[in-house]
Design a protein that fits this description.
With 101 residues, the chain is α+β, with helices and mostly antiparallel strands. The chain has a single domain, classed as Beta Polymerase, domain 2 (2-Layer Sandwich), CATH 3.30.460. Helices cover 41% and strands 16% of the residues. The longest helix has 14 residues.
């Protein structure tokens, strides 16, 4: 994961994401990857979140997170990927561009 680049999110958007995460998966380490992390995002590009917990989220907790994100005032879709559920090669590629939220 890198910290040298800047996320293409406003402070308000970051705060909204963090509130949804803290309310549903408190203490989870989360990173942003994809176009918002690499500088290729357009105004309404989605946000790709990577949950870095070593175990998959319980289904009810994952649904609560998705519901909280859907109910937020964010003007774009948020995709949630769990590091524990993706193949190693994909996780390595994601982590190479990810920025901690």
């Amino acid at each position: 994961m890198t910290a040298a680049r800047t996320l293409q999110l406003t402070d308000a958007q970051r705060a909204t994401l963090r509130r949804a995460l803290d309310a549903t998966v408190p203490g989870a380490r989360v990173a942003v990857f994809g176009s918002r992390a690499t500088g290729r995002a357009r105004p309404f590009s989605d946000v790709d979140l990577l949950i870095l917990d070593p175990s998959p989220l319980p289904w009810a907790q994952r649904l609560a997170l998705l519901d909280a994100l859907e109910a937020s005032d964010l003007p774009f879709r948020v995709d949630v990927v769990e590091a524990a559920t993706v193949p190693d090669a994909m996780r390595e590629r994601i982590l190479a561009e990810a920025i901690a939220l």
